[in-house]
Design brief:
It is rod-shaped and about 170 Å long. The strands form six sheets. A six-stranded mixed sheet has the order 7-4-3-6-5-8, with no helix packed on it. The chain is an alpha+beta fold. It folds into four domains: 60 residues; 60 residues; 121 residues, Jelly Rolls, CATH 2.60.120; 199 residues. The protein starts with a strand and ends in an 8-residue tail after the last helix. Helix 6 links the parallel strand 26 and strand 27. It has eight helices and 28 strands.
């Protein structure tokens, strides 16, 4: 206590004011409650001034306080605010399976020691190589050093052959090697393969009947050096920038029905990123009747079908003419020139397929439809009641010649239509069976009629009709034969409507 003055008998009580220190926040973790050893008068600091303790840890001033945890003598750094820590640095990675980039390790560079081209794996065993350092990227998570360098050399796949169909699409992921796709089609015209993909080059080659069409190596030109190192000749490199594998195609002209096999060979010497191929076969054009189309109605005049001849003649001159004359410019003389029934003993040898292969013979005719009415062909093609229908030389010659005529000419140049006429009940039933075998490639107990002795692969170019009634039915149904002929032509792709 202190007297008010020396003469006064009274005393007053005084309270000592504690010193103030700088209140501090630690920069490393943002924690507070720290004070400097110096008082606010011992060292002058502004708010947010940055100071360091004797351990060189950074703090900033956030106020003043008489109490707190002293960190000892602080030194003014002359800066304000906490220092901004540097961004963490990671290893940049390239994926080995497809050479894609933009990846980084889950660990920072101080947590794992790696050098450029070191090989690492992620938690799912995907393989990468180290290409540098960066602060950003797509993290693959924790990586493991394999102790090896560079990507593993690709293991070429064994050459593979895959059967595909017209209209199919094949999507292929990563592979190295040769893939062959096989398509069987009897159609003629342009066979097209559409190609799509990314950057890694491949060569796409179409093959048919000894002919080839190729893209050479298409893709990104950034891989040209890799192609050369893989042994690809410079002249086969047709890459571009940007990649020309993104959208491309290869086409080959298929001029005949046989051979039916078309092959696409894909050569992939580098680790592939992906590609897709789709197969577009030629489309058989519809049978067309034009003003120059010859129509032969062949009648088997060997004797057993005599009742059918006159109705066919009447039909050709009557209701069939009324139906088809529109295609001959409504000119009766033109119709009579191009459409005729061959009867009156004009065809007696019963060689069905010899009649079917006859080319256009009328001057000016551009194509021909051969319509054949027949009830049997024994003994010229087979022996009656022989359960295996052993082929005879005349059949062998005629069926192979017909096949050649169909395969080596444009679709629609020769169009055969076969009508198996039913003569009585149970009569000549072996001709029905025989024609079914030729149509479908089947035989009774043996393979006597495998290709080229059947027409099963040419079903889009020929027509078979069975159990056709004899001419005695004509009087009761005068449109019977006309409707059979029109329907058979329409079945092959045309659309004829009779008035």
């Amino acid at each position: 206590m202190n007297k008010i003055n020396i003469r006064s008998p009274y005393y007053i009580t005084t309270k000592e004011i504690p010193p103030l220190y700088h209140s501090l926040q630690k920069c490393d973790d943002g924690s507070v409650g720290y004070i400097s050893e110096q008082t606010v008068t011992g060292i002058v600091l502004v708010n947010n001034a940055r100071v360091q303790d004797i351990l060189l840890d950074d703090y900033i001033k956030v106020g003043s306080s008489a109490t707190g945890t002293s960190i000892g003598i602080v030194t003014d750094t002359g800066n304000t605010n906490c220092p901004v820590p540097p961004a963490p640095i990671y290893y940049t990675l390239t994926k080995c399976s497809d050479s894609s980039t933009g990846y980084i390790s889950g660990q920072i560079t101080s947590a794992i020691s790696l050098a450029e081209f070191d090989r690492v794996t992620d938690a799912t065993n995907i393989i990468y190589i180290v290409t540098g350092e960066a602060t950003t990227g797509t993290s693959v998570g924790t990586v493991t050093d394999t102790g090896e360098r560079n990507c593993p050399a690709p293991t070429p796949i064994q050459p593979q052959t895959i059967q595909v169909n017209c209209g199919d699409t094949q999507n292929v992921g990563t592979d190295v090697g040769v893939m062959t796709y096989q398509v069987n089609t009897p159609e003629t015209g342009n066979f097209v393969v559409n190609i799509s993909g990314s950057s890694v080059p491949q060569k796409f080659t179409l093959k048919w009947n000894g002919n080839e069409a190729t893209t050479n190596y298409i893709g990104s030109d950034t891989y040209d050096a890799d192609l050369l190192n893989a042994g690809v000749p410079q002249g086969e490199i047709s890459t571009a920038n940007p990649s020309n594998k993104i959208s491309n195609l290869v086409t080959i002209a298929k001029s005949t029905s046989t051979p039916t096999l078309v092959e696409l060979v894909v050569d992939a010497p580098l680790v592939n990123d992906e590609y897709s191929v789709s197969f577009t076969c030629p489309v058989t054009p519809a049978v067309v009747i034009e003003q120059t189309t010859q129509i032969n109605i062949w009648f088997d005049s060997s004797g057993s079908m005599n009742t059918t001849l006159q109705p066919l003649l009447d039909m050709a001159a009557g209701n069939l003419k009324a139906c088809l004359i529109q295609f001959y410019n409504d000119d009766s003389a033109e119709y009579d020139k191009y459409v005729r029934v061959s009867g009156n003993n004009e065809w007696q040898d019963e060689r069905t397929f010899n009649r079917a292969l006859q080319p256009p013979t009328v001057v000016g005719a551009t194509n021909v439809i051969n319509i054949i009415f027949q009830d049997e062909a024994s003994p010229i093609y087979y022996d009656s009641f022989n359960p295996d229908f052993q082929r005879k030389p005349a059949f062998n010659t005629d069926i192979i010649t017909l096949r050649n005529a169909l395969n080596n000419n444009p679709t629609g140049y020769i169009t055969p239509i076969f009508f198996q006429v039913k003569v009585g009940i149970g009569a000549y039933t072996e001709f029905f069976d025989f024609m079914k075998i030729v149509q479908n490639g089947q035989s009774n107990g043996s393979n006597n009629y495998a290709i080229p002795y059947n027409l099963s692969d040419l079903s889009d170019r020929v027509s078979f009709k069975y159990d056709i009634l004899q001419g005695i039915t004509y009087a009761s149904n005068p449109n019977y034969y006309r409707d059979l002929i029109i329907q058979s032509i329409n079945d092959l792709g045309f659309s004829i409507t009779c008035p």
